[in-house]
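USER:
Class, as today's exercise, take the chain set out below, and explain how the chain folds.
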Amino acid sequence: MSDDAEPRHGHTVARALAVLDLFDGDHAIWSAEDICAALRCPLPTGYRYLRELVSAGLVRRVSGGFALGARIILLDYVMRQGDQLLKAAIPVLRALARQTGCDCVLSTVYGDQIVDVHREAGAAPLNLAYGRGRPRPLFRGAAPKMILAAQPLGWVHKLYDAHAGEAEAAQMGADWRSFRATLAALRKRGCYVSRGEVEADISAVAVAIAPAGHDAASAIALVTNTERFEILNEALMIALLQQAAQQIELLQCDPDQRALARPAR
């Protein structure tokens, strides 16, 4: 197929956007040659994608190649303003962080990844390895496990098939049947406590937030160092999280209720 034939088949936009998927915390700068090799496309095609992305502000030229452009930051701002989950959750998380002194973290699903989308600092803010936009381990930690337990079974099955080894390594099940049973137990329990699963000396307790409309499931977690966590009232923390999740669900479904919502007490 000639280089000029590809646009007529409608692949240009998808392949150009695939360039953006190459960037992550370990690969912040790419050369044009490495991009073309990763996408398995000819150099002229790769350069055409890059020209379009640079023109749109999504990619910029830097020393050593190309990096993400400033328009990504602008789009993140716009997304925050229109994100109903964030609008509903931030006041509730803020109140919960003040009340408990723990960091309060909101996590959700994007595609086949789980990411933190907001964090309210507690009395002694933590230096956590994961923050807004950095994908979390799928099967470790309180929030990811509660999110998986709340997701549709078909979606979870596909995710499991693609990451069965990781699920087994996280002791969530050696096969699909046992993995599904683990998720069922989490759903029934309604919460999960993790101690040092993702970061040493960090513990968390999380509950799921039911999806609204076409949104994916989310979770909120109270996070603190393990030494402090052990002297906190775990049952009270779970009750506060469950109350907070219900408030967020209400605000997502009916934004007019925002003025009636009260912070968790």
The chain has two domains: 6-73, 83-260. Residues 1-10, 258-265 have pLDDT under 50 and may be disordered.
